[in-house]
Design goal:
The protein is 38% helix and 17% strand. The chain has eight helices and eight strands, in the order αααββααβββααβββα. The strands form two sheets. A six-stranded antiparallel β-sheet has the order 5-4-3-8-7-6, sandwiched between helices. A two-stranded antiparallel sheet has the order 1-2. Strand 6 and strand 7 (199-204) form a beta hairpin. Residues 1-31 are annotated as: Disordered.
Length: 245
Amino acid sequence: MATRSVAGEEDEPQGATEGLRGTGADRSTSQSLDRGLMLMELIGQSPEGISVTELAAATGTHRTIVTRLLKTLARRDYVIRDQFGQYRLGGRLLELARFVQPQVRAAALPILRVLAERISATAHLTMADGDEAVGLIVVEPTTAPFHVAYRVGTRNPLWRYASGIAILCARPVDEVEQPGVALARTRGWAYSEDSQGAIGIAAPLPHPLYSNYCTGVVMLTRPESPDEVGRAVIEAAAAIAARVV
């Protein structure tokens, strides 16, 4: 069986650049791994997808190397290539997301189950990843006849829905804030309503190590008392924070 030398990394075509911008010449690290991770970061920052040409230009790396790295990542489902030749992050990352911050996840799960049944709505734990809110845990109610369902790993801009707004309201006041952030900071919970009529109510975790997390609920109809739901969500967030170190 043929083997490839680790020290040599890939066989680069003549004229290829020395590596990604920002990649050092430290021989104790893997240049290939560093390149692959940087490609994934760039793809993650491009929700509409990004092409091989754009990735090569952004990283200063030969197209052949970029293509080979993308094929490797795609084979393991870390990235996917759509019908237009654009690359996006793949489902394997969603599977790995369940291992992120196991302590806060373990603390949150039983509390989210109680919250989901109490409000008869889908409850969630969400964290900020850059400028996006990423769903880490989703708990659906068992007694509600109808409820909102969405996948763990779902990403949305922080400013779009209640979960992201709740995370933003826990941060220092910004000179130019997104709509709803100031109000959420005042009352302790954020509110949003999407074009399909789904209602989101969320509150940040009051914990110095987990201030980029929030918990909340998503429901199909506007509650009779949003304030009451908001208080329930705040209580759940406080209970989760009390269970983590």
